[in-house]
Amino acid sequence: MKTFNAICCLLSTLLMATEAANADKKLYLLKFRMTPAAGRNQAQDIDTIKITINDISGIDVLHLFKELANPYILAVVNVEDDCRWPALTDVLFSMDDQYSAVPLYGCENFAKELGVELTGLTRNFGNGTLHVTEMIFYQAGHTTDEYLDILKDLLTTTNDVIGENIAKMTCFRVLSDLPIRMIYLSNVHPSQNELLIKRFKVAETAQATVRAYDNLNDHVC
Questions:
Q1: Alpha-carbon span 213 to 151, nearest angstrom
Q2: Whole-model pTM above 0.85?
Q3: pLDDT for the residue 5
């Protein structure tokens, strides 16, 4: 019963954050897998995807990256007009590619609901390698208050890292997911990314995966 009550309390707290976010931007994480095929011109297909999603009215591309050494493209988009989705999916279907769309909302909204004022997140990372860190925070072994404190500490540390100019950074929470899933984008070197993960105490509080990406606007391979 205690576990049930704790889950109910956590759900009500997190749903308030979700409802607040729903009134803002309609953010999605798009992931494309370019199916390997003999004779396929991957560079040309990358350009097609890049041009397509940037040219569709009603879809604002916030971030667009190509995973290093793997045939994946990652995009964060703000869908200003839901009617424009078919314009994107029709092109992807015609290329016989696999893709997924996951709803997000920005860390600022989530932080605000938890009482943390988060500032300094960026949209412009410039050139170079970008690291995308996905963190899943499990509640098992923690009370609701402890779990929320872990999330508050994460967001407070994010503020500190940005304020100290350690890294350019932005982050998102996967909408309504439990356990909480956070996605961080940062422009630091691999060794610095390891230090950031330690500073965020990920090993103690979450399960994390890290992937390296190139800014697609600079992708020439």
A1: 26
A2: no
A3: 38
